[in-house]
Specification:
- It comes from Aspergillus saccharolyticus JOP 1030-1.
- InterPro entries: AKR, AKR2D, Aldo/ket_reductase_CS, NAD(P)_OxRdtase_dom_sf, NADP_OxRdtase_dom.
- GO terms for molecular function: D-xylose reductase (NADPH) activity.
- This protein is of the alpha/beta class.
- The chain has a single domain, classed as NADP-dependent oxidoreductase domain (TIM Barrel), CATH 3.20.20.100.
- The chain is built from eleven helices and ten strands.
- The strands form two sheets. Strands 3-4-5-6-7-8-9-10 form an eight-stranded parallel sheet. Strands 1-2 form a two-stranded antiparallel ribbon.
- The protein is globular, with a radius of gyration of 19 Å.
- The chain starts with a strand and ends in a 21-residue tail after the last helix.
- It binds nicotinamide-adenine-dinucleotide (NAD).
- Nicotinamide-adenine-dinucleotide binds next to helix 10.
Length: 319
Amino acid sequence: MTTPTVKLNSGYDMPLVGFGLWKVNNDTCADQVYEAIKQGYRLFDGACDYGNETEAGQGVARAISEGIVKREELFIVSKLWNSFHDPERVEPIARKQLADWGVDYFDLYIVHFPIALKYVDPSVRYPPSWTSENGKLEFSNTPIQATWQAMEALVDAGLARSIGISNFSAQLVMDLLRYARVRPATLQIEHHPYLTQERLVEYAQKEGLVVTAYSSFGPLSFLELEVKNAVNSPPLFEHDLIKGIAEKHGRTPAQVLLRWATQRGIAVIPKSNNPTRLQQNLDVTGWNLEEGDIQKISELDRGLRFNDPLGYGLYVPIF
Ligand code: NAD
Protein backbone atom coordinates (compact mmCIF):
# COMPACT_ATOMS: atom_id res chain seq x y z
CA MET A 1 0.00 0.00 0.00
CA THR A 2 1.28 3.47 -0.82
CA THR A 3 -0.07 6.85 0.16
CA PRO A 4 -1.25 9.94 -1.73
CA THR A 5 0.98 12.96 -1.83
CA VAL A 6 0.42 16.63 -1.27
CA LYS A 7 2.06 19.35 -3.39
CA LEU A 8 4.41 21.61 -1.42
CA ASN A 9 4.99 25.28 -2.26
CA SER A 10 8.50 24.23 -3.31
CA GLY A 11 6.98 22.21 -6.16
CA TYR A 12 7.83 18.83 -4.62
CA ASP A 13 5.28 16.17 -3.64
CA MET A 14 5.22 15.00 -0.02
CA PRO A 15 3.49 11.76 1.09
CA LEU A 16 0.51 12.55 3.33
CA VAL A 17 1.38 9.66 5.66
CA GLY A 18 4.86 8.89 6.93
CA PHE A 19 6.77 7.15 9.67
CA GLY A 20 7.98 9.11 12.70
CA LEU A 21 11.35 8.15 14.17
CA TRP A 22 11.15 9.65 17.65
CA LYS A 23 11.83 7.04 20.36
CA VAL A 24 12.66 4.35 17.81
CA ASN A 25 15.44 2.41 19.57
CA ASN A 26 18.88 2.35 18.00
CA ASP A 27 19.07 -1.45 18.00
CA THR A 28 15.81 -1.90 16.09
CA CYS A 29 15.75 1.29 14.01
CA ALA A 30 17.39 -0.03 10.82
CA ASP A 31 15.04 -3.04 10.74
CA GLN A 32 11.99 -0.89 11.47
CA VAL A 33 12.78 1.55 8.67
CA TYR A 34 13.49 -1.32 6.28
CA GLU A 35 10.21 -3.06 7.22
CA ALA A 36 8.26 0.17 6.92
CA ILE A 37 9.63 0.71 3.41
CA LYS A 38 8.60 -2.86 2.52
CA GLN A 39 5.13 -2.12 3.83
CA GLY A 40 4.87 0.96 1.59
CA TYR A 41 6.09 3.86 3.76
CA ARG A 42 8.02 6.45 1.77
CA LEU A 43 8.31 9.39 4.18
CA PHE A 44 10.56 9.15 7.25
CA ASP A 45 10.47 11.91 9.83
CA GLY A 46 13.84 12.03 11.55
CA ALA A 47 15.79 14.53 13.61
CA CYS A 48 19.22 15.02 15.13
CA ASP A 49 17.52 14.93 18.52
CA TYR A 50 16.14 11.40 17.99
CA GLY A 51 19.71 10.06 17.98
CA ASN A 52 19.01 7.35 15.40
CA GLU A 53 19.73 8.90 12.02
CA THR A 54 22.67 6.59 11.28
CA GLU A 55 20.54 3.52 11.93
CA ALA A 56 17.61 4.93 9.95
CA GLY A 57 20.01 5.47 7.06
CA GLN A 58 21.13 1.85 7.32
CA GLY A 59 17.52 0.71 6.90
CA VAL A 60 17.15 2.98 3.88
CA ALA A 61 20.41 1.70 2.36
CA ARG A 62 19.33 -1.91 2.74
CA ALA A 63 15.99 -1.26 1.04
CA ILE A 64 17.69 0.60 -1.81
CA SER A 65 20.39 -2.05 -2.27
CA GLU A 66 17.73 -4.76 -2.48
CA GLY A 67 15.90 -2.78 -5.16
CA ILE A 68 12.74 -2.33 -3.03
CA VAL A 69 12.82 1.41 -3.50
CA LYS A 70 14.90 4.12 -5.17
CA ARG A 71 16.24 7.14 -3.29
CA GLU A 72 14.07 9.47 -5.37
CA GLU A 73 10.95 7.55 -4.29
CA LEU A 74 11.69 8.27 -0.64
CA PHE A 75 10.97 11.50 1.21
CA ILE A 76 13.53 11.93 3.96
CA VAL A 77 12.86 14.57 6.58
CA SER A 78 15.30 15.76 9.20
CA LYS A 79 15.47 18.62 11.66
CA LEU A 80 17.90 21.29 12.77
CA TRP A 81 18.41 21.00 16.53
CA ASN A 82 18.26 24.11 18.75
CA SER A 83 22.00 24.22 19.42
CA PHE A 84 22.78 24.64 15.72
CA HIS A 85 20.81 27.85 15.08
CA ASP A 86 23.89 30.08 14.74
CA PRO A 87 24.07 30.61 10.96
CA GLU A 88 27.60 29.26 10.55
CA ARG A 89 26.57 26.00 12.24
CA VAL A 90 23.65 25.18 9.96
CA GLU A 91 25.37 23.83 6.86
CA PRO A 92 28.03 21.79 8.73
CA ILE A 93 25.42 20.05 10.87
CA ALA A 94 23.11 19.46 7.91
CA ARG A 95 26.07 17.85 6.11
CA LYS A 96 26.80 15.66 9.15
CA GLN A 97 23.16 14.57 9.31
CA LEU A 98 23.15 13.82 5.58
CA ALA A 99 26.28 11.71 6.06
CA ASP A 100 24.60 9.87 8.95
CA TRP A 101 21.63 9.08 6.73
CA GLY A 102 23.94 8.20 3.82
CA VAL A 103 22.09 10.49 1.41
CA ASP A 104 23.15 13.66 -0.38
CA TYR A 105 20.02 15.74 0.07
CA PHE A 106 17.07 15.96 2.45
CA ASP A 107 13.62 16.23 0.95
CA LEU A 108 12.70 18.45 3.85
CA TYR A 109 14.82 19.99 6.58
CA ILE A 110 12.95 21.59 9.47
CA VAL A 111 13.83 24.05 12.24
CA HIS A 112 12.83 21.80 15.17
CA PHE A 113 11.98 24.55 17.69
CA PRO A 114 12.02 28.36 17.51
CA ILE A 115 14.64 28.33 20.25
CA ALA A 116 18.34 29.00 19.79
CA LEU A 117 20.61 27.27 22.27
CA LYS A 118 24.35 27.63 22.69
CA TYR A 119 26.40 25.59 20.21
CA VAL A 120 27.61 22.17 21.31
CA ASP A 121 30.25 20.53 19.16
CA PRO A 122 29.10 17.08 17.95
CA SER A 123 32.40 15.60 19.18
CA VAL A 124 31.49 16.75 22.69
CA ARG A 125 27.87 15.59 22.85
CA TYR A 126 25.58 14.26 20.14
CA PRO A 127 22.67 14.60 20.08
CA PRO A 128 23.20 17.67 22.24
CA SER A 129 19.79 17.54 23.97
CA TRP A 130 18.34 20.61 25.69
CA THR A 131 20.71 21.06 28.56
CA SER A 132 24.42 20.87 29.25
CA GLU A 133 25.88 18.17 31.53
CA ASN A 134 25.11 20.22 34.62
CA GLY A 135 21.45 20.37 33.58
CA LYS A 136 21.63 24.04 32.54
CA LEU A 137 19.77 25.57 29.61
CA GLU A 138 22.13 27.90 27.75
CA PHE A 139 20.70 30.15 25.05
CA SER A 140 22.26 31.66 21.94
CA ASN A 141 21.43 35.18 20.79
CA THR A 142 20.76 34.20 17.19
CA PRO A 143 17.40 35.45 15.94
CA ILE A 144 15.26 33.19 13.77
CA GLN A 145 15.79 35.39 10.73
CA ALA A 146 19.52 34.61 10.69
CA THR A 147 18.86 30.89 11.10
CA TRP A 148 16.27 30.96 8.34
CA GLN A 149 18.69 32.62 5.92
CA ALA A 150 21.14 29.78 6.59
CA MET A 151 18.30 27.30 5.95
CA GLU A 152 17.63 29.02 2.62
CA ALA A 153 21.29 28.60 1.74
CA LEU A 154 20.82 24.83 2.15
CA VAL A 155 18.21 24.95 -0.59
CA ASP A 156 20.56 27.00 -2.79
CA ALA A 157 23.31 24.42 -2.21
CA GLY A 158 21.00 21.52 -3.07
CA LEU A 159 21.31 20.00 0.41
CA ALA A 160 17.58 20.38 1.14
CA ARG A 161 14.84 20.42 -1.46
CA SER A 162 12.34 22.03 0.88
CA ILE A 163 12.71 23.67 4.26
CA GLY A 164 10.17 23.93 7.05
CA ILE A 165 9.47 24.86 10.65
CA SER A 166 8.12 23.14 13.72
CA ASN A 167 6.57 24.27 17.00
CA PHE A 168 6.17 27.82 15.67
CA SER A 169 3.23 29.98 16.74
CA ALA A 170 1.15 31.97 14.25
CA GLN A 171 2.97 35.16 15.30
CA LEU A 172 6.36 33.64 14.50
CA VAL A 173 5.11 32.28 11.16
CA MET A 174 3.75 35.74 10.32
CA ASP A 175 7.07 37.34 11.11
CA LEU A 176 9.08 34.75 9.18
CA LEU A 177 6.90 35.16 6.08
CA ARG A 178 7.80 38.87 5.99
CA TYR A 179 11.43 38.12 5.18
CA ALA A 180 11.51 34.55 3.83
CA ARG A 181 13.06 34.35 0.39
CA VAL A 182 12.27 30.62 0.46
CA ARG A 183 8.95 30.11 2.19
CA PRO A 184 8.63 27.27 4.66
CA ALA A 185 6.98 24.35 2.88
CA THR A 186 5.57 22.77 6.03
CA LEU A 187 4.70 23.54 9.64
CA GLN A 188 4.96 20.55 11.97
CA ILE A 189 2.94 20.87 15.16
CA GLU A 190 1.42 18.83 17.95
CA HIS A 191 -2.09 18.14 16.73
CA HIS A 192 -4.73 15.73 18.05
CA PRO A 193 -8.36 16.09 19.21
CA TYR A 194 -7.28 17.47 22.60
CA LEU A 195 -5.15 20.14 20.87
CA THR A 196 -6.69 21.10 17.54
CA GLN A 197 -4.96 24.52 17.11
CA GLU A 198 -7.60 25.47 14.54
CA ARG A 199 -6.52 29.09 14.04
CA LEU A 200 -2.89 28.17 13.53
CA VAL A 201 -3.78 25.36 11.11
CA GLU A 202 -6.10 27.60 9.13
CA TYR A 203 -3.58 30.43 8.96
CA ALA A 204 -0.71 28.16 7.87
CA GLN A 205 -2.83 26.47 5.23
CA LYS A 206 -4.05 29.85 3.91
CA GLU A 207 -0.41 30.88 3.56
CA GLY A 208 0.32 27.75 1.54
CA LEU A 209 2.20 25.79 4.22
CA VAL A 210 1.32 22.13 4.57
CA VAL A 211 0.62 21.28 8.20
CA THR A 212 2.05 18.04 9.56
CA ALA A 213 0.57 16.66 12.76
CA TYR A 214 2.75 15.01 15.34
CA SER A 215 1.52 12.97 18.31
CA SER A 216 -1.76 12.25 16.52
CA PHE A 217 -2.78 9.87 19.29
CA GLY A 218 -2.61 12.55 21.96
CA PRO A 219 -1.45 11.50 25.42
CA LEU A 220 -0.28 8.02 24.36
CA SER A 221 3.31 8.83 23.43
CA PHE A 222 3.84 10.89 26.59
CA LEU A 223 2.82 8.24 29.13
CA GLU A 224 6.25 6.60 29.28
CA LEU A 225 7.80 10.07 29.72
CA GLU A 226 5.44 10.54 32.67
CA VAL A 227 4.26 13.90 31.39
CA LYS A 228 1.74 14.83 34.08
CA ASN A 229 -1.20 16.04 32.01
CA ALA A 230 -0.83 13.03 29.67
CA VAL A 231 -1.06 10.58 32.56
CA ASN A 232 -4.20 12.42 33.75
CA SER A 233 -5.94 12.59 30.35
CA PRO A 234 -8.44 9.99 29.17
CA PRO A 235 -6.87 7.92 26.36
CA LEU A 236 -8.25 8.84 22.94
CA PHE A 237 -8.37 5.22 21.77
CA GLU A 238 -10.91 4.50 24.53
CA HIS A 239 -12.97 7.62 24.06
CA ASP A 240 -16.61 6.69 23.33
CA LEU A 241 -16.89 9.16 20.44
CA ILE A 242 -13.76 7.86 18.71
CA LYS A 243 -14.70 4.22 19.38
CA GLY A 244 -18.22 4.77 18.05
CA ILE A 245 -17.00 6.39 14.82
CA ALA A 246 -14.43 3.62 14.39
CA GLU A 247 -17.08 0.93 14.76
CA LYS A 248 -19.39 2.69 12.29
CA HIS A 249 -16.65 2.63 9.63
CA GLY A 250 -15.18 -0.78 10.48
CA ARG A 251 -11.89 0.97 11.33
CA THR A 252 -9.70 1.22 14.40
CA PRO A 253 -9.65 4.27 16.69
CA ALA A 254 -6.08 4.93 15.50
CA GLN A 255 -7.27 5.11 11.91
CA VAL A 256 -10.10 7.47 12.83
CA LEU A 257 -7.64 9.81 14.57
CA LEU A 258 -5.31 9.80 11.58
CA ARG A 259 -8.13 10.20 9.04
CA TRP A 260 -9.54 13.14 11.04
CA ALA A 261 -6.26 14.87 10.17
CA THR A 262 -5.59 13.67 6.63
CA GLN A 263 -9.14 14.42 5.49
CA ARG A 264 -8.42 18.08 6.29
CA GLY A 265 -5.16 18.01 4.32
CA ILE A 266 -2.98 17.57 7.40
CA ALA A 267 -0.09 15.12 6.99
CA VAL A 268 0.56 12.51 9.72
CA ILE A 269 3.71 10.69 10.86
CA PRO A 270 2.77 7.87 13.27
CA LYS A 271 5.21 5.12 14.13
CA SER A 272 4.76 1.51 15.06
CA ASN A 273 6.84 -1.64 15.00
CA ASN A 274 3.84 -3.90 14.71
CA PRO A 275 3.18 -4.97 11.07
CA THR A 276 -0.62 -4.88 11.46
CA ARG A 277 -0.54 -1.37 12.91
CA LEU A 278 1.95 -0.24 10.27
CA GLN A 279 -0.57 -1.23 7.60
CA GLN A 280 -3.49 0.27 9.53
CA ASN A 281 -1.71 3.59 9.92
CA LEU A 282 -0.95 3.76 6.21
CA ASP A 283 -4.56 3.04 5.28
CA VAL A 284 -5.88 6.43 6.35
CA THR A 285 -6.61 8.19 3.09
CA GLY A 286 -8.83 6.24 0.68
CA TRP A 287 -12.04 6.46 2.76
CA ASN A 288 -13.94 9.29 4.40
CA LEU A 289 -15.40 10.29 7.74
CA GLU A 290 -18.66 12.22 7.68
CA GLU A 291 -18.25 15.98 8.06
CA GLY A 292 -20.39 15.85 11.24
CA ASP A 293 -18.03 13.32 12.78
CA ILE A 294 -14.99 15.44 11.92
CA GLN A 295 -16.70 18.35 13.64
CA LYS A 296 -17.56 16.29 16.73
CA ILE A 297 -13.96 15.05 17.03
CA SER A 298 -12.71 18.64 16.72
CA GLU A 299 -15.02 19.60 19.58
CA LEU A 300 -12.96 17.40 21.94
CA ASP A 301 -10.37 20.21 21.92
CA ARG A 302 -9.20 21.13 25.43
CA GLY A 303 -6.04 23.04 24.54
CA LEU A 304 -4.12 20.16 26.11
CA ARG A 305 -0.49 20.26 25.01
CA PHE A 306 1.77 17.36 25.95
CA ASN A 307 5.02 18.22 24.16
CA ASP A 308 5.77 21.34 26.15
CA PRO A 309 9.33 21.99 27.39
CA LEU A 310 7.81 23.17 30.70
CA GLY A 311 6.31 19.69 31.11
CA TYR A 312 9.85 18.28 31.02
CA GLY A 313 11.03 20.71 33.65
CA LEU A 314 12.73 23.08 31.16
CA TYR A 315 12.02 26.75 31.62
CA VAL A 316 11.27 27.56 27.97
CA PRO A 317 7.76 29.07 28.10
CA ILE A 318 7.18 29.27 24.34
CA PHE A 319 3.61 27.99 24.36
P1 NAD B 1 2.99 8.30 17.47
O1 NAD B 1 2.11 8.79 16.43
O2 NAD B 1 4.18 7.57 17.00
O3 NAD B 1 2.17 7.41 18.48
C1 NAD B 1 2.59 7.03 19.75
C2 NAD B 1 2.29 5.61 20.14
O4 NAD B 1 1.17 5.07 19.45
C3 NAD B 1 3.47 4.69 19.82
O5 NAD B 1 3.99 4.29 21.05
C4 NAD B 1 2.86 3.52 19.06
O6 NAD B 1 3.26 2.28 19.59
C5 NAD B 1 1.38 3.68 19.23
N1 NAD B 1 0.67 3.29 18.00
C6 NAD B 1 1.03 3.58 16.73
N2 NAD B 1 0.13 3.10 15.86
C7 NAD B 1 -0.85 2.51 16.59
C8 NAD B 1 -2.05 1.85 16.24
N3 NAD B 1 -2.44 1.71 14.98
N4 NAD B 1 -2.81 1.37 17.25
C9 NAD B 1 -2.45 1.49 18.54
N5 NAD B 1 -1.30 2.14 18.92
C10 NAD B 1 -0.51 2.63 17.96
O7 NAD B 1 3.36 9.59 18.32
P2 NAD B 1 4.65 10.48 18.43
O8 NAD B 1 5.89 9.65 18.43
O9 NAD B 1 4.40 11.40 19.56
O10 NAD B 1 4.63 11.37 17.12
C11 NAD B 1 4.88 10.85 15.84
C12 NAD B 1 6.14 11.41 15.23
O11 NAD B 1 6.05 12.84 15.20
C13 NAD B 1 7.44 11.17 15.99
O12 NAD B 1 7.94 9.89 15.81
C14 NAD B 1 8.32 12.25 15.43
O13 NAD B 1 8.81 11.87 14.16
C15 NAD B 1 7.34 13.41 15.30
N6 NAD B 1 7.38 14.34 16.44
C16 NAD B 1 7.84 15.59 16.23
C17 NAD B 1 7.92 16.49 17.26
C18 NAD B 1 8.42 17.88 17.02
O14 NAD B 1 8.73 18.59 17.99
N7 NAD B 1 8.50 18.32 15.79
C19 NAD B 1 7.52 16.12 18.56
C20 NAD B 1 7.03 14.83 18.76
C21 NAD B 1 6.96 13.95 17.69
